[in-house]
Amino acid sequence: MLSNVVLPTNLEIIPNNCFGYCDIRSINIPNKVKEMKKYCLQYNQNLLTITITDNSILTRIEEYSMQRSKIETIFLPKTVSYFAANAFESSQTLKTITCNPSNPTFSVMDGILYNKDKTILVRYPANHGSSFQVPDSVKKIGFCAFISSVIETIIFPPNLKTIDGWSFMGTRLKKLKIPDSVTDIGEGAFAACTSLTEISFGAGMTYIPSYGFTNARITKIAIPDNITTIGDFAFDNCPTLKEVILPSTITNLGGSCFPSNVNVSFPSDAKLSLDDQQILYNLDKSILIMCLKKSTSYIIPESVVTIRSSAFKEMTDLTKIEFRSGTSLQTIEYDAFLGCSKLSSIEIPSSVTSFGKKSFYNCAQLKSVFFGSKLTRISSQCFEGCTSLSTVSFSTCDSSCIIDSYAFSGCTSLKTLTLSENISSIDM
C-alpha cells in the first residue's frame, strides 16, 4: 500500500480520489497547488500531518478531501477562498485551524474558523473541545460546521438566525436549546446525535427540517404551536421516542417524520385525521402520511390521492393492501412499501400516475403488477428485489411513460413483461 508521496513542485491540482485509501503518514503540499479536489486524500487513516506553507497559492480545499485522516492541525494561506467544512468528515482528531491574517475570506479565533467578519462559524475542529459558547457576532452556523465533533454542550448567541444543514450531525450533544431568534434550520442539522435527550424549540421556528433529529434519544416531544411543518424523517429512528404531541397549527407532516410505533396526539381542531387502523392523514384524507400501528392488512380510503414516502416502510407483517372502489390514488412516493417482505396482495389502482424511487423495493412476496392507463413514471429501483414478481403488465398509456433505471432489477422470477406502446423511455 502506498505510504510515501513526494509531489512535484509544479503541480497545480491534486485530483479527485488521487491518493484515497492509501497509508500516507505525512504530506507536503507544493506551493503551486491551487486545488485539493474531493476525496483526494480520503481514508488515509494514518495521515497525521499536512504541510501547507505561507507562500502557498492554494485556493480550494474541497469536500471529503481529508476524510478519515488523523490530522490535528491545518494552516490556510491567504489565498484560500473555499474551505469545505466536511473536508475532514468522520475525522475526530482535528484540534486547531490556523489562517494567514491577510486572508480576505476567512479568519480564525481560538483555533476555530469563521468568515472574515465572524458572522458565520465555518468549522469547529472536531476535537477542539466538548463545550463551546458561540460568539455573539455569529449570525449563522455553517453547513457541516460541527459535524462529527466531540461537542457535548453548546450555548448559542441570542441573535443567531440560521443553523445550516448537517451542521451538528453525529456530534455528542446531550441537550439543545434553540434561541427564539433562529428562523432557519437546514436539513439534517442535528441528525445522528445519539446522546441528545432534550430539545427546546425556539419561538422563531416555523418548521422542523427533514432528517433534523434522526437517531436522537428523546422519549417524548411536544411540538410548539409556532411549528406548521415537520419534514420527512425528522424524528425517524429515534429508538426511545414513545409520545409525540402535535399542535393544531400543524399543516404538513412529511413521510416517516416519526417512528411507526409512537403514540401521536393532537387537538380536535388540528388539520389531521387518524382512523381506526391508526393511519395518519391530513384533514380531508387526501394524503396518507404514515401508519402508526403494525398489522397484516390495511384498507386505503377512496379519498387518498398520495401515499407519502415510507408510509408503510419495513412493515414485515403486512401481507395485503386493499383500495376502496372509486379510489383517487395518483402518487405512491419513494420507499412507501419498501421492505414489506410478506406483501403478496396489492391491486394497484388504474388511477396511479407515478411510483417513487424504491416504493416497492424488496417486497419479496409480490407476485404480479398491473399498471393502468394514467401511468407516467416508474422511478428507479421501484420494484428492485421483488424476487417473486413473475408478471408485469401495462395498459396503453394515455400519455408518454418513463421507466427509470433498475426499476425491475433483481426480479429473478419475472417471466412475462407486456409493455405499452406509449412507453417513451426505459433507462438501463
Per CATH, the class of the domain at 276-428 reads Alpha Beta
How many E strands? 39
Q: State which percent range the strand residues make up.
A: 25-35%
The count of helical stretches stands at 0
Give me some keywords for this one.
single chain; 428 residues; mainly beta; Leucine-rich repeat, LRR (right-handed beta-alpha superhelix); 6-stranded mixed sheet
Write the layout of secondary structure elements.
Layout: E1 13-14, E2 26-28, E3 35-36, E4 49-51, E5 60-61, E6 73-76, E7 82-83, E8 96-99, E9 106-109, E10 112-115, E11 120-123, E12 131-133, E13 140-141, E14 153-155, E15 162-163, E16 175-177, E17 184-185, E18 198-200, E19 207-208, E20 220-222, E21 229-230, E22 243-245, E23 252-253, E24 263-265, E25 272-274, E26 279-282, E27 287-291, E28 297-300, E29 306-307, E30 320-323, E31 331-332, E32 345-346, E33 354-355, E34 368-371, E35 377-378, E36 391-394, E37 401-403, E38 416-418, E39 423-426
Parallel strand pairs: 1-3, 2-4, 3-5, 5-7, 6-8, 11-13, 12-14, 13-15, 15-17, 16-18, 19-21, 20-22, 21-23, 22-24, 27-29, 28-30, 29-31, 30-32, 31-33, 33-35, 34-36, 35-37, 36-38, 37-39
Antiparallel strand pairs: 9-10, 10-11, 25-26, 26-27
How would you characterize the overall build of this protein?
By secondary structure, the protein is an all-beta fold. It has a domain at 276-428: Ribonuclease Inhibitor (Leucine-rich repeat, LRR (right-handed beta-alpha superhelix), Alpha-Beta Horseshoe). Helix content is 0%, strand content 27%. The chain is built from no helices and 39 strands. The chain has strands at 13-14, 26-28, 35-36, 49-51, 60-61, 73-76, 82-83, 96-99, 106-109, 112-115, 120-123, 131-133, 140-141, 153-155, 162-163, 175-177, 184-185, 198-200, 207-208, 220-222, 229-230, 243-245, 252-253, 263-265, 272-274, 279-282, 287-291, 297-300, 306-307, 320-323, 331-332, 345-346, 354-355, 368-371, 377-378, 391-394, 401-403, 416-418, 423-426. The strands form eleven sheets. It has a nine-stranded mixed sheet, with no helix packed on it. It has a six-stranded mixed sheet with strand order 9-10-11-13-15-17, with no helix packed on it. The model has no long low-confidence stretch (mean pLDDT 96). Pfam families: LRR_5 (PF13306). This is Surface antigen BspA-like. InterPro entries: LRR_5, LRR_dom_sf, Surface_bspA-like. It comes from Trichomonas vaginalis (strain ATCC PRA-98 / G3).
